[in-house]
Write a structure and sequence with these properties.
Strand order of the largest sheet: 1-2-4-3
Radius of gyration: 19 Å
Number of helices: 7
Helix content: 40-55%
Structural class: alpha+beta
Shape: elongated
Mean pLDDT: 74
Order of helices and strands: HEEHHEHEHHHEE
Number of strands: 6
Largest sheet: 4 strands, antiparallel
Number of domains: 1
Distance between the termini: 18 Å
Strand content: 5-15%
C-alpha cells in the first residue's frame, strides 16, 4: 500500500479547493488558468501575461489552450454562468499540467504563489498515491475472483465497472456526488486512470 503524504494543518488553501479544481482533459490531470488564478489570488489576465512573458518555460506538455469544443463541454457542466456585459471570457482558457503548475510559481514571483504551488504538488502526489492503491485493489480483486465461483461474478463485474477509466469521449472524471454549483467533485479527489 502507498504511504500517505501528510497534509499540513496550516495550509494556505484547503485541500478540497485544490482537488475540486483538478480536471481530466486529454488523458491527463490539469488545472485551468481561472482556477489557478483564484488559488494564487491574481487576475486571470495577470497569470496569463506572466506565462506569455515566459513562454519558453511552458512547452505543450506543461500547458495547452482548450479547444472550443473542450471549453463548451466544460461550460455545459457548470450550472451557473454570470450574465451581463463583460462577464464571459474573451479567450479560450489554458490548462496547466502538473509540470506547468510547478513552473507557475517561478514566473509569478510571490510568496503565496510558492506556497500554493507546494500545496498543489502535494495534492498531485496524493492523487498518484490513490491511483497506486487503486491498481493494487484491482490486482487483489482479480485474485479473489479467481478463488470464487460464478455466483459472485455479478458482484465482481459491478466493482470492476466502478473502477473502469472514463470513456474517451468524456472530458473529465469525477468521484463521489457532484457539486451542482460547478459540476466538480464534492471534496474527494478526481478519479485518475492511466
Amino acid at each position: 500500500m502507498a504511504t500517505k503524504t501528510p497534509v499540513p494543518e496550516n495550509s494556505v488553501v484547503p485541500l478540497e479547493r485544490i482537488t475540486e479544481s483538478i480536471l481530466w482533459l486529454r488523458g491527463q490531470k490539469v488545472m485551468l488558468d481561472a482556477d489557478l488564478a483564484g488559488l494564487y489570488e491574481v487576475e486571470i489576465k495577470t497569470l496569463n501575461q506572466a506565462v506569455k512573458r515566459n513562454s519558453g518555460r511552458f512547452p505543450p506538455d506543461f500547458m495547452f489552450q482548450l479547444t472550443a469544443e473542450e471549453f463548451e463541454s466544460l461550460r455545459s457542466q457548470f450550472v451557473t454562468l454570470k450574465t451581463g456585459r463583460g462577464q464571459h471570457r474573451k479567450y479560450l482558457p489554458y490548462a496547466f499540467t502538473e509540470q506547468g503548475v510547478a513552473m507557475l510559481s517561478s514566473v509569478l514571483h510571490s510568496e503565496r504563489a510558492i506556497q500554493v504551488s507546494i500545496e498543489i504538488m502535494r495534492t498531485f502526489v496524493r492523487l498518484r498515491q490513490l491511483l497506486t492503491s487503486n491498481v493494487e485493489l484491482a490486482r487483489k480483486l482479480a485474485a479473489l475472483e479467481g478463488k470464487y465461483d460464478a455466483q459472485f461474478k455479478m458482484v465482481f463485474d459491478a466493482i470492476r465497472k466502478l473502477m473502469k477509466p472514463p470513456e474517451s469521449g468524456q472530458s473529465r472524471s469525477r468521484s463521489g456526488p457532484s457539486d451542482s454549483r460547478r459540476g466538480r467533485n464534492d471534496c474527494g479527489p478526481v478519479a485518475v486512470h492511466q
